[in-house]
Amino acid sequence: MVARLLQNFNGSRALIVTANRTAVEALETTLAKLGVTSEFLIVADGRVDFDMISLKQERDILFVDGDLDGTLPLETEGDPRLPPVPVIGLVGVEAPSRLKRLVNLGATAFLRKPVHSAAIYTALFLGVNQFLLRNDMQNRLDDMERRRRGRRSVIKAVLTLTTQTGIDDDEAYNRLRRESMRLRVSLEEYCEEFLGRWAATPKITVREGPSGRRAETK
After folding, report:
1. Which residues are in the ANTAR domain (predicted)?
2. What CATH number does residue 170 fall under?
3. Is 28 within 8 Å of 16 (Cβ atoms)?
4. pTM listed for this prediction
């Protein structure tokens, strides 16, 4: 299923990171016509004083000037995470190192400087929707990875249930699946919980008594 493309950006907020406001004058004006408010973040020595945690995915869009010197706060050594919002790069000097830097920040669209109003909607459309599609793909991959890891719990739960009850593996699997559906959790989650309960239950073992009788002990 393909994620729905966003076409209306009314109510969004653009956070613009640049030291050259003259080159992006058309950006603020055109964004306002699209219902997008603009805020210019203060740049000092190539750094911006703002907290990435405060960004809201459903509202914020970052416009980052690739010609800034120094290190932006989004660039964290050894941290592979990307900003939680769409990033659109503002490109002046098309040096590979500067373009790479924007790509590493998560840029999914670019605007040439000086910015022209005719190019803004296209960049906004591409930048936001490519970000949403990338996030959707990542969420699907994460879910598949969680399920792959969870399959080990499913197999162990099936084997445990067959040992406990004497039913065959198909019936054990169906019983676990029905119960997970009843509780509205994934099969993998339910099996992990089932194994946890089973591990906490005192086990009954059978041993031979002195008289040859079979005795049950916990």
Report:
1. 134-195
2. 1.10.10.10
3. yes
4. 0.70
Residue 170 lies in a domain: yes
Say if 167 falls within a structural domain.
yes
Q: Which residue has the tokens 């969420």?
A: 139
Report the distance separating Cα 86 and Cα 41, nearest Å: 16
What is the domain range of residue 187?
Answer: 146-217
Tokens of 66: 């690739």
Cα distances from 23 to residues 11, 34, 65, 150, in angstroms, run 24, 19, 10, 52
Are residues 109 and 22 located together in one domain of the fold? yes
The string of pLDDT tens digits covering residues 68-119 is 876 555 554 445 567 889 999 999 888 888 888 888 888 999 999 999 999 9
CA–CA separation, 190 vs 178, rounded Å? 10
Residues 74 and 164 in one domain: no
Distance between CA atoms of residues 57 and 48, nearest Å: 19
| Kind plus residue range of the DSSP H or E element containing 90 | strand 87-91
The helix or strand, by DSSP H or E, that contains position 109, with its residue range, turns out to be strand 107-112
Among 123, 139, 147, residue whose Cα is nearest residue 84? 139
Cα–Cα distance, 162 to 173 (Å, whole number): 9
Same domain assignment for residues 101 and 21: yes
Count of structural domains, the chain = 2
Given a cut of 70, is residue 22 above it in pLDDT? yes
110 and 171 housed in the same domain = no
In a domain, 177, yes or no: yes
